[in-house]
Design a protein that fits this description.
The protein is an alpha/beta fold. It is built from 13 helices and 19 strands. Bound molecules: zinc ion. The site of zinc ion has 5 residues, from loops.
């Protein structure tokens, strides 16, 4: 394996100019002799490779939207070196054979580490618990029914109890289905547009259910893609009481609002939906005070035929790997709201520690997952540069600052814009 030396890079947290050495796929103090590859990182900032604990790679079953090869290429372009893929594939990732298939494929054609998340219930049907033990042996890092919530409080209780036997975190998509039928956030704008709205309480009711169940059992729970002010406040209060709750949000919830739906552009349609300005500010507040632990992409590729239709009929979800870092930098750091080091924690060590991945740092002896970015580069994000198979991004045409220039996963260069 090639030895690599990265020179003249500015450390993301200390601001010092550092030299990074990579040998045998890990960070080292020094390498014997000259490095096989010397990268001059003058003007660039060095970061740990980013970790995304929530994405959809679509393989097996939906390769027309994305596959492991294209999805991990897209991730590497966004500076990600580890991604955790949700189980709503076809067949569903609810057994060891599918987990093994994903890992084998990632090993063969992947451009980053892939950590599969297994289904909590068989077939994501919300009835019987999936074979967590066998899936854990095969390599899953968590369980979730994402795309859907864990259907009932009774099932959640069983899932929390059973998963704890295997030390598997439970990640829940919080949506009370009985009141969530709609295409966008419920409010004055949905009424004006004549679209059915999803009320904020659809999310908040289930966050409360999850927290109360976790508190009752004294077991950990992770809340996926939080988007509402009240939901964040419920989590904040629970954390104060000592409930073992963690949560995540996505770049679109701190950079966009429901107003974008007025264009009827379906690239602004996702679930949970874009909320109000008040909610957006609360997401930023939650990131600032640590109530929100992680920023994830919820990368959800869809074919143009699933998006280029009526707003109410279009699929939910947007791609996110290639813009997450720049959107975070542009909206949180450049604006002075959050320090660069704090933002990076939510995209590296925090998700890594929730899922016990052992990634997300530049420490000696750790896997050499690293990312170089130019924080002075402002660019217009174009459809032409997208590496994902799908192009359902709400940021196309937007000006963003902070461009990923080079990504190295496990000592191997996986994305390179420097040459
Ligand atoms: Zn979800």
């Amino acid at each position: 394996m090639k030895t690599i030396e990265i020179r003249n890079a500015k450390h993301f947290a200390s601001d010092e100019t550092v030299t990074i050495y990579i040998e045998n796929g890990v960070f080292t103090d020094k390498i014997s002799g000259d490095a096989d590859e010397v990268i001059d990182a003058k003007g660039l900032t060095v970061f740990p490779g980013l970790v995304d604990m929530h994405c959809h790679l679509r393989e097996p079953g939906y390769e027309y939207r994305e596959d492991i090869k294209s999805g991990t290429k897209s991730a590497a372009k966004g500076g990600f070196t580890s991604v955790c893929c949700m189980p709503n594939t076809n067949p569903v990732c609810d057994n060891a054979a599918v987990v093994e298939g994903i890992l084998r494929k990632a090993e063969q054609v992947g451009s980053c580490n892939v950590f599969p998340i297994g289904a909590a219930s068989k077939g994501l049907a919300g009835k019987e618990i999936a074979e967590m033990g066998l899936m854990k042996e095969a390599g899953i890092v968590a369980v979730s029914d994402d795309g859907k919530p864990i259907a009932t409080a009774n099932l959640l209780k069983k899932v929390l109890e059973y998963s704890s036997d295997f030390d598997l975190p439970v990640l829940n998509h919080c949506e009370e289905m009985s009141i969530s039928e709609g295409a966008m956030n419920e409010g004055a704008i949905s009424t004006a547009l004549g679209l059915r709205g999803i009320p904020a309480i659809a999310e908040e009711i289930m966050i409360s259910r999850d927290i109360q169940t976790a508190e009752y059992l004294d077991m950990p729970i992770h809340i996926c893609h939080v988007s509402t002010k009240r939901g964040i406040e419920i989590i904040r209060q629970a954390k104060k009481r000592g409930v073992k709750v963690t949560c995540e949000t996505c770049p679109h919830y701190f950079s966009l609002t429901e107003e974008a739906c007025q264009t009827y552009d379906t690239n602004f349609k996702m679930n949970p939906p874009l909320r109000t300005e008040d909610d957006r500010l609360a997401v930023i507040e939650g990131l600032k005070d640590g109530t929100i632990d992680c920023i994830v992409t919820d990368h959800a590729p869809h074919h143009i035929d699933e998006k280029d239709i009526e707003f109410s009929l279009a699929n939910n979800g947007i791609i996110g790997f290639e813009t997450a870092f720049a959107v975070g930098y542009t909206y949180l750091v450049k604006t002075g709201l959050i320090s660069l080091a704090d933002m990076i924690k939510t995209m590296t060590v925090n998700p890594s520690s929730i899922l016990k991945l052992g990634r997300g740092t530049l420490e000696k002896g750790m896997p050499a997952d690293v990312m170089l970015a130019d924080l002075n580069e402002t660019f217009v994000y174009t459809k032409e540069e997208i590496l994902s198979k799908s192009a359902n991004s709400p940021y196309i045409g937007d000006e963003l600052t902070g461009r990923v220039k080079l990504t190295i996963a496990g000592g191997k260069i996986t994305y390179d814009e420097l040459r």
